[in-house]
Amino acid sequence: MEDDNEQLQLLRQIRDNQLQQLKSQSESLDIQKQQFELYSTQLQQSEKLHDRAEAIQQKSGELVEKSRKLFSFLLPIIFILIIYMIWVMFF
């Protein structure tokens, strides 16, 4: 009888420990789900930010190209005007 009680008590402890372990695993899974959702949100924000940065770099490149073309057009005109001003001043 005493052995049966000990076995019963051991089985109850095993059951209680298993229940506690399941509860801990459930809590751990909940934490992992939250972390994954946070990661997913951060990944989406990072992708949006990356896309935005690419668009800004594209516009910046276009602006640099336009200014380069404008400079190559204006530089000869400015040079000619300077020569003309010097010619007008001395002649």
Please describe the structure with a list of short key phrases separated by commas or semicolons:
single chain; 91 residues; mainly alpha; 1 helix; 98% helix; 0% strand
What do these coordinates show?
With 91 residues, this protein is mostly helical. It contains 1 helix and no strands. It has one helix spanning 2-90. The longest helix has 89 residues, at 2-90.
Oligomerization state: single chain
Q: How do the SSEs run, as a string of H and E?
A: H
Count of spatially separate domains: 1
Q: Which outline best applies?
A: rod-shaped
How many DSSP H or I helices? 1
Question: How many strands?
Answer: 0
Strand content: under 5%
Stretches with pLDDT under 50, minimum 5 residues: none
What is the percent of helical residues?
over 70%
Largest sheet: none
Gyration radius from CA atoms, angstroms: 39 Å
What is the CA-CA span between the terminal residues?
A: 131 Å
Which structural class should the secondary elements be placed in? mainly alpha
Mean of the pLDDT scores? 95
